[in-house]
Each structure stands twice: as structure tokens, then as C-alpha cells.
Amino acid sequence: VSPGATVHLHGRARGMKADAELRVIFVIEEPRRVGFALGTVDRSVVSGEESFMLEWHDNDEVWFTVRAFDRPNAFLYKLFPGMLRRRRRALFQRYLRAISPLYTTSA
């Protein structure tokens, strides 16, 4: 994967289609840090970016950081902003489950 590459994602979040065409913004490959960022392209229902970084600190702690920002493009998400927040929360919970078998959601 390299900056400028296009990525096509297909999936579901809370029963809703979550397909996206994204562009790779940057890729970092250093001895103690790896990561990348993705941004939406023109026809997306939201406009935004997400970055994913994995860092190994000198004290042997490993940190995984996800940063994201977005705004709605689709009329439905502009009309009902709570839908976008719920969908974003569901996607982030899936990220956390994917990296940690110990992750659980609050009841």
C-alpha cells in the first residue's frame, strides 16, 4: 500500500451497508512505528479521514491510536446526525474488537 492508492472496502455495521472507496493519504514504516491514513473520495456518504498508528515505546508499552474526523455528505445523515454517530461508534467498536480479544462493550 502506498500514498495515492485507492482502497475498496466492503462490509456491514449494525446491519447497514458500509462500503467505501478510500484513498491512502500516507504510510509510515519506521522501526518502532507503523501506520497509515485513509481519506474518503467524492461519492462517499461522509467526507473525512482516519489514521491508524501502532507505536512501540521505549518502556515496552505498545500503543494503537485511531484518529478520525468526518462530516456527512448524504442527505439522510445531515437530516439525522445521530445515525452517523451510532454508525461511527459501531465501526470503532469493531476496530477495538479486532485488535484486542479482551475488549468488551459497556452494558
| Proportion of residues in extended strands | over 45%
The end-to-end span amounts to 38 Å
For the biggest sheet, the summary is: 5 strands, antiparallel
Q: What does the average pLDDT come to?
A: 83
Q: Strands of the largest sheet, in order across it?
A: 1-4-5-6-7
Helix share, percent: 10-25%
Stretches with pLDDT under 50, minimum 5 residues = none
Name the helix and strand elements from N-terminus to C-terminus, one letter apiece.
EEEEEEEHH
**Strand tally:** 7
Shape: globular
Q: How would you classify the quaternary structure? A: single chain
* Tally of separate helices: 2
Computed structural class: alpha+beta
Structure, described:
With 107 residues, the chain is of the alpha+beta class. Helices cover 22% and strands 46% of the residues. The chain is built from 2 helices and 7 strands; from the N terminus they run E-E-E-E-E-E-E-H-H. The chain has helices at residues 75-79, 81-99; strands spanning 6-9, 12-13, 16-17, 20-30, 33-40, 46-56, 62-72. A hairpin with a 5-residue loop joins strand 6 and strand 7.
